[in-house]
Write a structure and sequence with these properties.
By secondary structure, chain A is of the alpha+beta class. Chain A has one helix at residues 3-27; strands spanning 30-36, 38-43, 49-51, 60-66, 68-75, 79-81, 87-91, 97-101, 104-108, 114-118, 124-129, 131-133, 142-156. In chain A, the strands form 3 sheets. Chain A has a 5-stranded antiparallel sheet with strand order 1-4-11-8-9, with no helix packed on it. In chain A, strands 3-12-7-6 form a 4-stranded antiparallel sheet, with no helix packed on it. In chain A, a hairpin with a 2-residue loop joins strand 8 and strand 9 (104-108). Chain A starts with a helix and ends with a strand. In chain A, 31% of the residues are buried. In chain B, the strands form 3 sheets. In chain B, strands 2, 3, 4, 8, 9, 10 and 12 form a 7-stranded antiparallel sheet that branches. Chain B has helices at 2-15, 139-143, and strands at 21-32, 36-39, 55-57, 65-70, 74-79, 84-85, 93-94, 96-103, 106-107, 111-112, 117-120, 127-137, 155-160. Chain B is mainly β. The chains are: A alpha+beta, B mainly beta.
Chain lengths: 157, 161
């Protein structure tokens, strides 16, 4: 093979690699955005209050933007805590998670790791979380809060 | 050799595209409302009145009480406190009602109910206070009163603070 032909082949290969690796990097991106907090509102002492994942006002809402398969998991708090250290137990049930991809919603257990797939045409998924707060009969008045962490790891394209 | 290495690197990039991860947080929030519950029964009963000596019931005697359970700091006051007990069409019988509060077994100073104001602080959790009631009906007023049963009511007001 002539040197010029060889050089042309190498250039062609470089262009090919550049074209392929560009979209490859795009496939490796995932963006997670928190859109709404989980809000129980006003609780009365002794009155268990649940916020459903389908609650359009009270449920937490996060958005995953990306394409491919992902593992979704949560760090769920066991309780809400006041600045004074008082606690309200929190329970996350097996249907307190809701995944929506292109208007198709399905419930899931937020305490278990979820495997989801976002097809190229869909590009994003919405995650909603509900829970049950259990203030005791002697629950001190005041504001309580806790942090929920959602982790998303891409496992495939 | 260099070109072979480049080619190997390019193929590796094709076979192992970059995997990504991300995380985000949301906050769970709630506000526990102030709550207070008044319990207990029983009236402040002076019984048969004496016209010879004043008829006095000590508000801290425990003769007539209400319990108050609360989860926040409150102020207790009393409204519609009567200055006299009434009995049908008879002339009202003057009375001076007194109130006190007790936390952890310690009574406050006795105050006229009409102007009493007790600031009660909540403890680490639900706290219980006792409200005590008493009063005085003067012997001189009893001496001129018509025979009969006299009564009146007043209200306990709990204000969150």
């Amino acid at each position: 093979m002539r040197p010029r032909t060889m050089q042309a082949m190498w250039v062609a290969l470089a262009v090919f690699v550049a074209l392929i690796t560009g979209p490859g990097a795009a496939r490796g991106q995932v963006l997670v955005t928190a859109e709404r907090d989980l809000d129980f509102g006003l609780l009365s002492p002794g009155a268990v209050t649940a916020v459903a994942a389908t609650d359009l006002i009270g449920s937490a809402q996060l958005r995953i933007a990306g394409r491919g398969t992902f593992q979704v998991s949560f760090q769920l708090p066991a309780s809400l805590t006041s600045p004074n250290g008082d606690e309200i137990p929190l329970v996350f049930g097996p249907a307190d998670g809701m995944l929506t991809i292109r208007h198709k919603a399905s419930s899931f257990d937020p305490s278990a790791v979820q495997s989801i797939r976002i097809n190229p045409a869909e590009q994003e998924a919405q995650v909603n979380l509900g829970a049950r707060a259990q203030p005791g009969p002697a629950q001190p008045a005041g504001s309580y809060s806790a942090t929920i962490v959602m982790m998303v790891v891409q496992t495939g394209t | 050799m260099f070109r072979k290495l480049m080619l190997t690197a390019a193929v590796t990039m094709l076979v192992l595209p970059g995997m990504a991860s991300a995380q985000s947080t949301v906050t769970a929030t709630a506000t526990v409302s102030p709550a207070a519950t008044v319990g207990g029964t029983g009236d402040l009963a002076f019984g048969t009145l004496s016209a010879g000596t004043d008829n006095v019931i000590d508000a801290t005697s425990g003769a007539t009480t209400r319990t108050l359970d609360y989860n926040h700091n409150v102020t207790i006051s009393f409204t519609n406190v009567p200055a006299a007990l009434v009995s049908g069409t008879s002339t009202p019988l003057p009375v001076a009602l007194t109130c006190a509060s007790s936390l952890a077994g310690t009574w406050s100073a006795v105050q006229p109910c009409s102007t009493a104001s007790f600031d009660l602080d909540v403890g680490a959790a639900l706290t219980q206070a006792i409200l005590g009631f008493g009063g005085t009906i003067a012997a001189a007023d009893v001496a001129t009163a018509a025979a009969g049963d006299y009564a009146a009511t007043f209200d306990i007001t709990i204000t969150a603070r």
